[in-house]
Structures are given as C-alpha cells and as structure tokens.
Amino acid sequence: MTIEIRVPTLGESVTEATVATWFKKPGDAVAVDEMLCELETDKVTVEVPSPAAGVMAEIVAPEGATVGVDALLATLTEGEGAKPAPAAAAPAPAATPAEPASTVDVMVPTLGESVTEATVATWFKQVGDTVAQDEMLCELETDKVSVEVPAPAAGTLTEILAPDGATVQAGGKLAVIASGAGATAPASAPAPAAAPAPTTTGKDVENAPSANKLMAEKGLTPDQVTGTGKDGRIMKEDVLNAAAKPAPAPAAAPAATPRAPVPADDASREERVKMTRLRQTIARRLKESQNTAAMLTTYNEVDMGAVMDIRKEYKELFQKKHGVKLGFMSFFTKACVHALKEVPDVNAEIDGTDVVYKNYVHMGVAVGTPTGLVVPVVRNADQMSFAEIEKKIAELGQKAVAGKLSMAEMQGGSFTISNGGVYGSLMSSPILNPPQSGILGMHKIQDRPMAINGEVVIRPMMYLALSYDHRVVDGKGAVTFLVRVKEALEDPRRLLMDL
C-alpha cells in the first residue's frame, strides 16, 4: 500500500515552507513516527514524521524546494519493511540465524579547524534501542557549533562510552552498534519485554530530536510538555509553548502561608546551571576583546526614510524576481562595503607587529540564537548583489537558529554588523569580534522630530555605533567611515555611482 507524505498545517497565516533537510532517502526503511524531513517557514521549523512503518519510495519535493500546505512531499510503501528489512529474502530463512552480527563503532566526527574536543550534550537513544542508518544518535557541543552524530549503520545500540556531559576528543569513540542480524530484530534478547511498551502507552513514542535538545536547554522534562505530534510525540513547537507558559504556583502555597512568614533562604531560590561550551566561549572571547583591543566607540544617526521608500516601492518586484524579501541588511552591507573601500583600516587586523589589510570583505552578521550569539560570515560580500546578500543572510540565519552552521561558515570574517534594533535597542556599544578591528551596531528605527531646512519634521531615525580598535583605526578614520555609511543610506544613489 502506498502512503502519501504531505505538508502539515504550518500555522496561522503561514502558507508555504522550504524543504530544509531530508533525513531519509528512497529505499530506506522507516519506523512509524520516525522523522523524515524538516521544513522551514518564516517563523518556525516544522518536522514531518512518518505516519506508518515502511520503505521510502519516492521524494517528490527535494531539499530547497518551496512547498504549500498539503503539498505532496514523498511517498511511502507501507509494510513491515521498516523492521525485517530482508522481507524479499523469505525463501532463505535458514540463512538469517546463521548471519553473524557485527559491531560498528560510533566515532566523534571531524569538529572543524582548530577544534579538538567537544562535550556530549544529549543522547537521543539509549542502550538497547534499535536505530536506523543515518538516524541521529546524539549531539555534541563545541566552542562554536553543535554537531549532530548520525548512526553509521542500522542495528542496536549496545554500548554508550561517553554519556551526557562527557568531554570527547576528535576521532574518539562514542558508542557501539551491533549491526547485521541484530539490526532487524533486537538481537540483544535481554530486552524483549520492553518491546510491547510503546504500544501500550502512546507517551512512549520517540520525541523529535530538536524537541529533546530544546527541553534540555530550557530545563524542562517531558512531563512538563504536552505533545501535539502523532500519539503524543513532543515536537519543537510544543517545547516553545511550554517554556512560554508561566510556572504554575505550588499547590500547597495557600495552606503554607503562615501569618508571620519566614523569609526563604536565598540559596533555596537560586538555580545553578552549567554554562554550555558556546556560552563559555562567548564569555571568554568578549573578555579577551576588552582586554586586548584599545576599543573605542563613535556614534552617528541616519535618516532611514530613503531606504524605507525604496523597499516600499520595489519590495514586490524584488521578491517576484529574486525569490527573497528586500530587507535592511543588504543596504547596510552595501553601505559598509562602500565605506570600507575608503577606510581600509576598519577592515584590517593586527597580527603580531604587522597590520594585515584585507582586499576583500567577508561580512560577519551577528545572529542571536536560543543557545547564544553566533556570527556567520557572508564571504566576498563586496562582490555580491543586493539579492545575493539577502539570500545568503537568510540562509545563514536559518542555519544559525537551527544550530546547523558549519565551522567554515563562521570563520574568516573581516568586519561585523550587529542589529540590536530587532530586540528594540535604541543605542548600545557593540564589542569587537577579534581579531577584527571594527563592528557596526544598528539600532531601532524611531520617529523623531528633526530640524530640516529650518523646519521641524518627523523622520524615521536610527542611531549607528561603530566600535573600533584604536590601535589600528584613528579617530578620523572611524568618524569618516560612519559618515560614509550614513551618506550611502540617506542617498542610496551614491552606491550606484560609487560616491
């Protein structure tokens, strides 16, 4: 029987999504509720579980495709193919018991340039669990990114050598999988009694991996989250909803309120949580930046009216032709590239007793994520069009929020833009991202009365802040840079004429 896999409801006012990742390919065996693919919308990431056990037959919407609600994603051949994979080999049952089970080591993957160790953040499988090939086993945290570890083969997880919280070296051994005969039926006979459990209670279904990760980050347990997936499976959105709810007042609170309350001990009302590797690295690098660079900040303000008018006039044509929205970031990137050509010191860095001038602009774009600030890099931004910049920033932003940025995508930046305005910041002093010598801080656009040609006019204004390393950049250069950015944004025609 063929089953169609279709795009689920994406949420209020959301009509389409992009296929981000397929976790299965045609011919792969899948179990009921096993995650097949991940869709990305403007607001959330949506995981698509398998409605039945069987074999993937065809993928209709490949990665990168844009799909509408209820669009056909793939087809599944229903049956027992998800478990006894060699169903077609029924004529030779005698060969099955004779087939030896082999072991496969699960190793720490390459972590990236200059990264030698990681922390085991979360195991999504337990010893005795049956796993499919390429199914996610655990997640590792490095100083910069999260790394997912897939199963190298189908089988049964027989041993976990590095538990949650353990520090592991690149190339180290994480676990052992028994493959072969043990892959189709739990060959480790000690646990047959546990098999019926999932069918007796719908709450024993496997939660979405991204939901497990988010529960760990938010300090929630599955009992505190109501799953809306099939058979009560907990999805990422369920965790976000649970985290947004106010904590319920303790049931015993009314009865436990004496006439003369005794002040609670401060320690009993505190919570101690170990910092993630990413947060430790952010803290260390920011402090290093303050201790190393002679950091100074200069400020200006820009009238955003011209940019807003252009976006309003051309946004529909731009999106129709290029398939991406025309945002503010492409204007700021172009303006910074223009200013960096005139003031190359801001795009340079100190290396020992040398100053290294960059004849290119690799633009870092600071992105806030649930686990901390990351700075993916738009490489060769000086050679890109508005549309290319918008597409790349959107792609990197989605990867950052999903925790799927690679090491290469966060290295080599020569200058950074940080937009605190998305959080409502009116003015701030950004901290340098070493070894860079400059970072531009964008802020909230706010209508303010301005004196123009002797008259008071209400204009959409934004404060700009340039933090710079005074060891490389003089005050004159910093002010000139910021003025050029202001001029380019207030009259974008200057960018076309290189003025």
Give a brief outline of the structure.
The chain has helices at 95-98, 181-184, 197-200, 209-218, 236-244, 277-292, 305-322, 328-342, 386-402, 475-490, 493-497, and strands spanning 2-6, 16-22, 29-30, 35-40, 45-49, 54-59, 66-68, 72-78, 102-107, 117-123, 130-131, 136-141, 146-150, 155-160, 167-169, 173-179, 295-303, 349-351, 354-356, 363-365, 367-369, 372-374, 377-378, 415-419, 438-442, 446-452, 455-469.
Descriptive key words:
499 residues; globular; alpha+beta; E3-bd_dom_sf; OB fold (Dihydrolipoamide Acetyltransferase, E2P); four-stranded antiparallel β-sheet; single chain; Chloramphenicol Acetyltransferase; CAT-like_dom_sf; lipoyl; Dihydrolipoyllysine-residue succinyltransferase component of 2-oxoglutarate dehydrogenase complex
Please provide a written account of the structure.
With 499 residues, this protein is an alpha+beta fold. It has three domains: 2-82, OB fold (Dihydrolipoamide Acetyltransferase, E2P) (Beta Barrel); 101-184, RNA polymerase II/Efflux pump adaptor protein, barrel-sandwich hybrid domain (OB fold (Dihydrolipoamide Acetyltransferase, E2P)), CATH 2.40.50.100; 277-497, 2-Layer Sandwich (Chloramphenicol Acetyltransferase). It has eleven helices and 27 strands. Strands 17, 20, 23, 24, 25, 26 and 27 form a seven-stranded mixed sheet that branches. A four-stranded antiparallel sheet has the order 1-8-6-3, with no helix packed on it. A four-stranded antiparallel sheet has the order 5-4-2-7, with no helix packed on it. Strand 21 (367-369) and strand 22 (372-374) form a beta hairpin. The longest helix has 18 residues, at 305-322. It is globular and about 80 Å long. The model is unreliable at 81-96 and 184-203 (pLDDT under 50).
